[in-house]
């Protein structure tokens, strides 16, 4: 009898009794999960025990926040939901920033958390927090598993919800006794009566949109993250070719057209190009695709944004339509399918005069190189040139992020990875880890500041442990540059608590982890350093010493219309 | 403007938190909310009275639809509906006021469900205006305690 039982545990077959932990890992494998980013702890002991027998690869990060960000970076590059795992209590709360980040940028994540046993739920027991409650405002949905038999269905639903419609994070909270409980798992099926995913878009509205485009005199297409997540970048290129539309992108939309594309006017909004902002302000038709009129684009002034334009708003989330700007032609559905349908019906508008105006703005208001010894623009352009078309760039948050957005020649969708909506410093390094694991053969650059790097610097150990050849371009100015710039512009240069006086020697940090370090002080040294970094087989940290007086221009002050830019 | 929404949701623990949390974080104002299981034990019905213009209402409705647990949202504001509230009201009484109060309860078709030496409890159903009117009428006798359920509403037949 005893022998028979141990046989069952050794080689579980279908129809055999499995633990909740085993059922969970099988369910993940059934969803084509290959990688889990995680950190173990008491409430996930059964899961980590079962992991030893599972083909799933686990990446041990050094802080749970990095597990969520890495899963996020992995999802953005691969297009598949990222999976992260943490224990109950502090493990779960450490994921919160990463979950919020994924929620704001509509990134599919399945977040697994351990929980205290159901018998202790609600008793303030050791490492107990109500993580489904805490994350309710920042998740698309969440589950607290109360019965081991529910696991296959919940996992199936979680992946479906995370990846479909407007993607987002889903939390599954797993009490320890449920992980250890056994059952014979049954075939799972979705039980989502009221969850609806929009697809093709209304045919009548699509015809209206095609007509409006064909008849427009000064159209602009405003492309966001939805173009990338729906895989509409090909349709967008085709639409540009057929109609000659000029395109502006959001931060999330970078990569939807190649950087050098003649129709791309650059990023719109607070640190957008003058041309992009003027074009949006002056257009008679705004074709908004997969965007949410975020306040970093509109300055929080929906009523003063593109006031001369009729608005076509294409989005998969009905709640985004009419939230900030009234749409004359709203179309709910998948951006790729809708753009393809518009393509079939649209005719090229006559917009030669409009392009003449746009070219004049471009000549009058180019983005400028700075005058200091080591220009961030030059660093971005040099890396982009040497790294080539297939390189992926991940960024942290701050000035360097805006320079990367403005100057790094991103040529493909899913190749620019950045924390947009939440603006979470510390995102860059773990996101680069996720990006590299999604494209093991790819060349991944991380552009990061000295402030943000130190928020998740412990993850240098993760890149070394997993032999990830991430190339780190540290734009090191010894200050919290973006905050300093804001204080410079809005607080009369009264700089408050932005000096990072006790920065470590980053080359010694690199050396301590076994990473190749280089210091770059002048523009003459940039090319050699970047070449060496690319040729080096392992991870590299390039410490670019830039001036704290490098600021990001142009800049729309909050509350001003997007044509009221400083630093034109 | 006040709007009355009927929201059909899954009858699970935590669903009320999801709905009320949505209202709180998006700064929508709930005037009243009542909820109970429906004829289908898997479904609960919430009647939510919310204050806002048409634009706010459009957002509320769309955001509610995004919750996986929400099956259906109907704005009953401009529909022909029967709506009711239940109130239990404790009013101070003495020998002089007793008969006047009992008469008022009669006029409003209420019921005295408990009578003490110095107070009575009145049960009253009706629309919000009727309950407001009763409260105004008896207030000067001494309104000791007031419990109201919040509005529930149902579409009239043959609509």
What does this molecule look like?
The complex is a heterodimer of chains A (568) and B (159). By secondary structure, chain A is an alpha/beta fold. Helix content of chain A is 38%, strand content 16%. Chain A has 24 helices and 20 strands. With 159 residues, chain B is α+β, with helices and mostly antiparallel strands. Chain B folds into two domains: 2-75, 2-Layer Sandwich (Alpha-Beta Plaits); 81-155, Alpha-Beta Plaits (2-Layer Sandwich), CATH 3.30.70. Helices cover 31% and strands 43% of the residues of chain B. Chain B contains four helices and nine strands; from the N terminus they run βαββαββαββαββ. The longest helix of chain B has 15 residues, at 128-142. In chain B, 23% of the residues are buried. The A-B interface holds A 132-133, 136-137, 140-141, 144, 161, 192-196, 317-319, 322-323 and B 10, 14, 17-18, 21, 25, 55, 58-59, 62-63, 65-66, 68-72.
Largest interface: A-B, 18 and 18 residues
- Figure out the total of helices of chain B: 4
Query: Largest sheet of chain B at a glance?
Result: 5 strands, antiparallel
- Overall outline of chain A: globular
What is the strand tally of chain A? 20
Coarse structural class of chain A: alpha/beta
Number of domains of chain B: 2
- Strand proportion of chain A, as a percent range, falls in 15-25%
User: How are the strands of the largest sheet of chain A arranged?
Assistant: 3-2-4-5-7-6
Share of residues in helices of chain A: 25-40%
Gap between N and C termini of chain A? 82 Å
CATH H-level superfamily title of the largest domain in chain B: ACT-like. Chain A, domain 2
Give the mean pLDDT of chain A.
Answer: 95
């Amino acid at each position: 009898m005893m022998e028979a039982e141990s046989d069952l545990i050794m080689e579980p077959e279908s129809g055999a009794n499995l633990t909740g932990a085993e059922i969970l890992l099988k369910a993940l494998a059934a969803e084509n999960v290959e990688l889990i980013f995680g950190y173990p702890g008491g409430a996930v002991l059964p899961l980590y025990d079962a992991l030893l027998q599972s083909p799933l690869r686990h990446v041990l990060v050094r802080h749970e926040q990095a597990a969520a960000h890495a899963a996020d970076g992995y999802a953005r590059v691969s297009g598949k939901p990222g999976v992260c795992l943490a224990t109950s209590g502090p493990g779960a709360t450490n994921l919160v920033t990463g979950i919020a980040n994924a929620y704001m940028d509509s990134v599919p994540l399945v977040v697994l958390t351990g929980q205290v046993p159901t018998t202790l739920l609600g008793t303030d027991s050791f490492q107990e927090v109500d993580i489904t409650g805490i994350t309710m405002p920042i998740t698309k949905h969440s589950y607290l598993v109360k019965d081991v038999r529910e696991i296959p269905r919940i996992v199936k639903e979680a992946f479906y919800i995370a990846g479909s419609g407007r993607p987002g994070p889903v939390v599954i909270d797993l009490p320890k006794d449920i992980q250890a409980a056994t059952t014979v798992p049954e075939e799972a099926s979705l039980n989502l009566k009221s969850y609806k995913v929009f697809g093709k878009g209304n045919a009548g509205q699509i015809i209206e949109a095609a007509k409006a485009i064909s008849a427009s005199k000064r159209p602009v297409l405003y492309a966001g993250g939805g173009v990338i997540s729906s895989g509409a970048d090909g349709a967008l290129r085709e639409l540009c070719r057929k109609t000659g539309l000029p395109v502006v992108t959001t931060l999330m939309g970078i990569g939807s057209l190649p950087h050098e594309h003649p129709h791309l006017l650059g990023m719109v909004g607070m640190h957008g190009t003058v041309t992009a902002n003027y074009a949006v302000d002056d257009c008679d038709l705004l074709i908004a695709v997969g965007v949410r009129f975020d306040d970093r684009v509109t300055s929080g002034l929906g009523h003063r944004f593109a006031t001369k334009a009729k608005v076509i708003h294409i989005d998969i989330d009905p709640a985004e339509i009419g939230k900030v700007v009234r749409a004359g032609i709203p179309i709910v559905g998948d951006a790729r399918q809708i753009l393809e349908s518009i393509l079939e019906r649209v005719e090229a508008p006559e917009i030669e005069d409009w392009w003449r105006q746009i070219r004049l703005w471009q000549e009058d208001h180019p983005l400028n190189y700075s005058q200091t010894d080591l220009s961030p623009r030059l660093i971005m352009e040099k890396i982009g040139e040497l790294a080539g078309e297939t390189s992926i760039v991940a960024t942290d948050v701050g000035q360097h992020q805006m320079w990367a957005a403005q100057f790094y020649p991103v040529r493909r969708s899913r190749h620019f990875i950045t924390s947009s909506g939440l603006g979470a410093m510390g995102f860059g390094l773990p996101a680069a880890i996720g990006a590299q694991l999604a494209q093991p053969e790819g060349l991944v650059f991380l552009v990061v500041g000295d402030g943000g790097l130190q928020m998740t610097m412990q993850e240098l150990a993760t890149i070394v442990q997993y032999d990830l050849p991430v190339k780190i371009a540290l734009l090191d100015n010894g200050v919290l540059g973006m905050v300093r710039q804001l204080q410079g512009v809005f607080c009369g240069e009264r700089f408050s608590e932005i000096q990072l006086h006790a920065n470590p020697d980053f080359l010694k940090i690199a050396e301590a982890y076994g990473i190749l370090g280089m210091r770059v002080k002048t523009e003459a040294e940039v090319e050699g350093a970047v070449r060496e970094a690319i040729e080096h087989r392992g991870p590299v940290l390039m410490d670019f010493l830039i001036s704290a007086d490098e600021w990001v221009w142009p800049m729309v002050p909050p509350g001003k219309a997007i044509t009221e830019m400083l630093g034109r | 403007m006040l709007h009355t929404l009927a929201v059909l949701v899954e009858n699970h623990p935590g669903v009320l938190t999801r709905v009320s949390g949505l209202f709180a974080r998006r700064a929508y104002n709930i005037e009243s909310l009542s909820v109970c299981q429906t004829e289908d034990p898997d479904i609960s019905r919430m009647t939510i009275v919310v204050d806002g213009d048409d634009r706010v209402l459009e957002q509320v409705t769309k955001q509610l639809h995004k919750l996986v647990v929400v099956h259906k949202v109907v704005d009953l504001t401009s529909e022909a509906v029967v709506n009711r509230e239940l109130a239990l009201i404790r009013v101070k009484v003495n020998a002089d006021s007793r008969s006047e109060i009992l008469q008022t309860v009669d006029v409003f078709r209420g019921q005295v469900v408990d009578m003490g030496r110095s107070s009575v409890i009145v049960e009253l159903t009706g629309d919000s205006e009727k309950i407001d009117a009763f409260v105004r009428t008896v207030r000067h006798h001494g309104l000791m305690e007031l419990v109201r359920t919040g509005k529930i509403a149902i579409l009239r037949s043959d609509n």
